[in-house]
Amino acid sequence: MNLVWIRLLETVDAQGLAALASVVAVAGSAPREAGARLVLRPDGGFWGTVGGGQLEWSLIGEARAALAAGRGPAQARDWPLGPDLGQCCGGRVTTWVETFDARDRDMLARFAALEAAGRFDVAACPGEDGRVVRRVLSSADRAPAEGVVERFGDDGAPVLLFGAGHVGRALAIALAPLPFRLTWVDSRAGEFPAHIPANATVRVADNPVEVVGSAPPGAFVMVMTHSHPLDLAVTTAALKRTELGPVGLIGSATKRARFLKRMREAGLSDAALARLVCPIGAPGVSGKEPAVIAAMTAAQLLQWRDAALRIAHGGADWLKVAGAGRTRRH
Which residues belong to any copy of the XdhC- CoxI domain (predicted)? Predict the structure, then answer.
């Protein structure tokens, strides 16, 4: 969950008190990784997850009890998942449960502003009063000798989506809860829905091709406009930018072959063309309904996001990743 401090601030302002349950360390197999968090409201509502099952149920119970007691020291606990909770994972999880009220508002607002601006790290450790003390780390800071380093803010992979038609809308909805930062592009302002997902920024562009030039390095591109000539122009521009990730194009194998022929005639190299993924979508499902295509394309984007992390550590390359996505037919 990315919006931890924003949710805490909203909850304190609305209900006067909020609780935060965090996974701060994991050993062995566990439902979630360190950094998984859950914000609980006094009215019982919550955001996020620490992994589900008995661990989450127990942590929510502890957070409710902490809210009932009011703002106080953080509660640290070590959970042997098998012996204590009967979970088959078998690992151990260390958690913190914290409470916040109006006395913490300045701190919550400061962290919420940092969270809205992007990613940031803090050094966190229990203070003398038992509450967790956090210090924002700069890029030059080393990890502290005591306590833990926590990461907050947006870690979404950038995606450029060209087209606000039926499939474009369905894909934007499918990506809304997922770790992506979406730039949604169309020349037709009236095609965008009234409500835009929080992780999406709309760009109404007379010439959508120009938006390709502003894409950050590593961005993924999905092309599904209302016009085949525009599809070709956007796809060509994206493939020319060798520092971008794979370029997905909605369409059939026939459309792919025709586009490849024209792009070769335009001088694109085989290495650039190898990044083209058409048809789009993870394999295994053949439905052509917009929601089905969107679901399978969202799964494919998650695969690309994981691959980008492996590539950063020398464990994969985009040619293999793009080649794995050519089995669907739309």
Answer: 16-71
